[in-house]
Amino acid sequence: MSEELKYKKAARWVLFSLTLITAFMAFQVSKIGFDYDFERFFPEGDPETEFFFQHREKYSSENDFVLFSLENEKGIFDKNFLKEAKRFQDSLETLPHVMRVQSLLNLSEPIKEPLFGSFFERPYLRWDEPEFYSIDSARIFSSPDLVNTFVTADGNALAMVLDHSPFLSKVKCDELSTGVNRVVPHFHFDALYKSGRSIGQGYFVARMQKELLMFISASLILIILFLLIAFRSVWGVVVPLIVVFMSIIWLLGIMRLTGKEIDLLLTILPTILFVVGMSDVVHILSKYFDELRKGQGKLQAIKVSVKEVGLATFLTSITTAIGFLTLISSSIIPIREFGIYSAVGVLVAYVLAFTLLPATMVLTKAPHLKYDGFRKDFWSQHLQSFYLFIIKKRRWIGASAILLSVICLIGISKIEVNNFLLEDLKKDNPFRVEFDYFEEAYAGTRPFEMAVLLSDSTEDILAPDVLRKLDRLDSYLHDEYGAGFIISPVNFIKALNKASHNGNAEYYRLPDDDKELQKLSNQVKRVKQMSAMNAFLTDDLLECRFAGKMGDWGKKEITLRNERLEEFWSKEMGNDVEYHLTGTAMLIDLNNEYLSTTMIYGLLIAFLIVALIVGLMYRDWRMVIIALIPNILPLMMIAGLMGFTGINLKVSTSIIFTIAFGIAVDDTIHFVSRLRLELGKGRTRQYALKRSFIGTGKAIIITSLILIAGFLTLILSTFKGTFYTGALLSLTLLFAVIVDLLLLPVLFWAFYGKEKSMPLTDTL
User: Fold this and answer.
1) Residue 220 domain-assigned?
2) Domain total for the chain?
3) What is d(CA 683, CA 63) in angstroms, rounded to the nearest whole number?
């Protein structure tokens, strides 16, 4: 059997096996789901996360509700409007998983009957009796617990709070959201706004599905364009696309087999794999086409391509995978999963590039490529001119790099860690518009959660002196901290005091007399298990909950307010009472602090791995420095740009550094690997450096353009986090290819300018 027939037989078996595996993986992909469980972004194993879940178990969840706001330009005290609002509320109460719907239409205040001392309920708003509107309006607007909570301060909007069953699954949230969307069109108000986790979850999942398809389509169009320009061959477009599409199918199939659904972070994974996987293919094809142009036969061209590009491509796949794997040091589960599956995808792409691509080359006719000679080749000619320019201007380039580094350090010093709850959505996003409306019209939308604990068990929360301390805390949170709609045991005592004085709003306060206050406390203790206070006070009366809403001011501002709260506590509350801030919003803020640390550790690990690889290749510390500097400088440039432009460090921007380094270092490794091959052929340092620059320059530029174009598609996202990931990664890779081409030759000349030859070992 001839050599060609032997290779063709092996290639057919390879293609047959890969086709079977791909068909199986495609079937798995058809069953993959989408997930937007934001609680998975809480730091795993962290004391704050554990405290939050314990706090929620004692009381209740802070996110099991949907907010509605119904606007009437003439004011809410309009019979037709209130009649329509009542019909709307009644319709909401019939939806699946709804426990109750509260608004001024069904809220009542307790009133103590002076003669017999019993309590009765008096409605705040007699919506079907217009003759009482003026009286009810006066009572409502004199009640601080209602204004900016159930009615806006201008009286033009009425709020409804839909409480649903706790901890609804994704399926049940979809059922509730579908029900709400079915009910809303049947009612007509001047404006209707809604917000809540069950509503938002469905919206985010729908957007993720649309954007996943959009990213893949946009990447496909751009990559086809670049491949046509680079190879000017249908063969050079179709084969790489098949390799990359199969890589994506395999990875999504692996995710399905391991029980992983697509979350917000993983929507960008196919795009990453699309462009990163294409890098391997382009390097192989570039070498293959170069060999064909030199007149080599097809089999020989394949062998040379696999041999000379194989090691460098293997090392670049390893370093890229390591760049992603450094994310497993994060305490946030979705970040770890993103790192793991991205690394797996990179390795899958490498395996397919070196199995499917060579097999396809063997079984297909080699494209006819005209050889014009080395010096007449378009890329070689222009790269040679560019190389000569760099060598002539090397001192100027080196000095510019040093100056640029100093400027970048100044910018880096300006970076701030900050985040907002819905910063991922752009300002004009419909869901964001509704969120911002509640921010401005009511007491804010960011949950405020505080646990207050007694360290001295000789008293309980309802003791008069403790209640007076909590009353000072309540006033501080409202007047100084800026929280609204605060509910705590203090509010229940105030409500009882008001009820004991015929609903007079002036008595919505703690009684001045301790005996009267103790009497109200005893009354609360007797009915605690039967009242709403059960969600704000533990059975042993040693711990209570302050829950409310606050503005989404950003982590930086909230940190300042928390520091002032700490100062207030140490001065006013004493040592017998302790507090603990908690809640989903606080844990999201905590994520950003952890991610900053994770980024630093991840980068250090990636630096060490690259240093180890280059060190093993050359056994020379100077080569390690030469390899690291061109890849550290682009990261400094993007960090400096973030500092100067005010882009905050957060989840979406912190992970780009380890990803970018893992991808950008590929060009450097291809360059130094080619240099080692040229030196191994006995060429002089100057000539080896020149041949390496010209030989790898085309592939480096093409792959970098493909990577940049691929990541640029992410800026089409409606999620700002995805937008920043695409924009910053593209800029980083652009900076990286420029720095590689300009600085690598300069560094080689700087470190080895006086030597006749460069170090070379036979160990690798």
Assistant:
1) no
2) 4
3) 69
